């Protein structure tokens, strides 16, 4: 009986693995055509200052909506874009599209707000990111000081000298640099203090478990203290409850991003949200 169960289990896993591999191949083929089909769009999630409830910035988030498939999460399709190298042209499109939108909002008279764009490790290592960013800023006319590139710890740990040079090249363009998903990697305080970054985003997994797990509370408190010590801007993301918000404010974290305030929105809805006065009423 046990043996038969064991065999069934193996068969089940094999089939499941096979199905997943096939599904990913199908997605990869679709992603190759996503550009021509105009299947990519961007949504923007506000980052709120808790001091005056104003939107100080937005994060651009890529959406892929193929006509004949149910929505696919970025957690699923970004790794496929990275494996196929497609993330380089798609990442350039994201940068251009988002900067173009942000510049248009400024021209339309919206309050001055920053634009954060996620950069993949593959884009950072393989593409000529400095040249791409320089070109995009020149073409869209966005003030470089309004652009913030979100990088991750893991991509900066590799090849430190070359990474340092690439980061400096980006800084010389006048853009801001943020470390996304902070706390999930292995950065030491000494390492962090040598990086030319201006911003830390504490990973949402810690924020989510703020009041469940003492160790996660400790991580959040420590990252906030670290950011203050190093003079870095800190953003907490994934904030969903008033309880999380008050804890963060109590510790001195004043910029938050999360469903408590606003979900990622299409551009027209974002402009409406920013146009409203005060954002102290949490939106579902
Ligand atoms: P991220 O950069 O850490 O972005 C934040 C993610 O958290 C977004 O998920 C956002 O929708 C979600 N989020 C924000 N507030 C809350 C909240 O209160 N609760 C919960 N449960 N989630 C919240 P999304 O859009 O699915 O993106 C997932 C990841 O995919 C991003 O994580 C980023 O790593 C990657 N990604 C998205 N767009 C791009 C892009 O244009 N380029 C690259 N390279 N990566 C991207
Ligand atoms: Mg991000
Ligand atoms: Mg990320
Ligand atoms: Mg993040």
Automatic annotation (TrEMBL):
Origin species: Trichlorobacter lovleyi (strain ATCC BAA-1151 / DSM 17278 / SZ)
Organismal lineage: Bacteria, Pseudomonadati, Thermodesulfobacteriota, Desulfuromonadia, Geobacterales
Organism domain of life: Bacteria
Protein name listed in UniProt: Diguanylate cyclase/phosphodiesterase with PAS/PAC sensor(S)
Start and end residues of each EAL domain: 24-278
